[in-house]
Amino acid sequence: SAVISQKPSRDICQRGTSLTIQCQVDSQVTMMFWYRQQPGQSLTLIATANQGSEATYESGFVIDKFPISRPNLTFSTLTVSNMSPEDSSIYLCSVGRGQGIYEQYFGPGTRLTVT
Amino acid sequence: KNEVEQSPQNLTAQEGEFITINCSYSVGISALHWLQQHPGGGIVSLFMLSSGKKKHGRLIATINIQEKHSSLHITASHPRDSAVYICAALSNFGNEKLTFGTGTRLTIIP
């Protein structure tokens, strides 16, 4: 298994500001994922972050709005830039492990409210 | 139509009841996850299965690949089981992406 921690666990931010969310894993992993869960919705993949390469963003998400860093195999950050109330969501990181059929482990999430 | 559908969307039951949550998917998958999300937002992975049946404590997950259907069962339900249960299908196209169902909100009344 993998133990994942996220910081902050929650935050309330003003419109137009930026917030950086940290994700720390207790072991080295190749693939890390960032998800967004808007109120009442299911999870949506923002991007896949592999160490040593640029993050791969899903349709509808761009690097300028959600820059991601992956400096090593146990850590990643997601920044939500120039926030608006529509960015109020739970942001989760997860990691994948294994080959072929692999398991995915999720962090506790960061609950963001933009006022 | 979503590629992964769950039913019911909401379920309220009395403590001790046997609970079944269903998940149907239309895409080819290599595995299916069952996840539990508590009100704080954190997600716990309950099961990952690609065939047959898995059991952990009072939780049982089954999958029928031919019928593209999976079920999550909770025996002797307890108020602490109250949470949102989400199934997520892992694509078999090698891109390791999960497609999530919309979740089932379970409330167990003492």
Structure description:
The complex is a heterodimer of chains A (115) and B (110). In chain A, strands 2, 4, 5, 6, 9, 10 and 11 form a seven-stranded mixed beta sheet that branches. Chain A has a four-stranded antiparallel beta sheet with strand order 1-3-8-7, with no helix packed on it. By secondary structure, chain A is mainly β. In chain A, a hairpin with a 5-residue loop joins β9 (89-97) and β10 (103-106). Chain A contains no helices and eleven strands. Chain B is mainly β. Helices cover 0% and strands 61% of the residues of chain B. Chain B has strands spanning 4-7, 10-14, 19-25, 29-37, 43-49, 52-56, 59-64, 69-74, 83-91, 98-100, 104-109. In chain B, a hairpin with a 6-residue loop joins β9 and β10 (98-100). The radius of gyration of chain B is 13 Å and the shape is globular. The N and C termini of chain B lie far apart (36 Å). The mean pLDDT of chain B is 90. The A-B interface holds A 31, 37, 41-45, 48, 90, 92, 94, 96, 100-109, 111 and B 30-31, 33, 35, 40-45, 48, 50, 86, 88, 90, 96-98, 100-103.
